[in-house]
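User: Sequence in, structure out. Go.
Assistant: Echoing your sequence, followed by the structure tokens.
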Amino acid sequence: MCIRDRCSVCEDSGLLLKEPCYCNGWNGGEDGSIDVVGEEWETVKITIDSGAADNVCPEEWAPKFVTRACAPKKFVNASGDPIKHTGEKKVVLWTGEPGHEKLSGLTFQAGGVKKPLAAVHRICEKGNIVQFGPNEADNFIFNVASKQKTWLKKEFGQYVLEATLATDQVF
């Protein structure tokens, strides 16, 4: 656990903390490497969805992170059918190219969906601009404050964020 109120890792990531930092002793080496704390990490893909009302994920996704009870929310899929809501899951992700990794936090509504989706409007609420375009270099999330880009990949006609799940101790 970080002993500072807010460490440079969390500040630089654009993660908005309203309480002390819990980055679990992360220490970026002088060469930009990451000193891993805890278990093995898992690479995940999150679809960036401009039509989603909120960030959603299957309840069993990212099992290191607990699904916590919260006020029930009503969601519908693209066909208008209801989506079961089982709680909220806060996850911490490492994104970026090797040597330029950054820490990000996302809150997902867990329930009856097949894969994790990040809602463009939720990403934008956190001070980011999401850009999609015809070329690989046109697809990214741009943090207005830090001026950093997080690259998106296009897979099967969808834009995807590749990230590595950190450990539950961060939140």
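User: And one key feature?
Assistant: The first strand starts at residue 42 and ends at 49.
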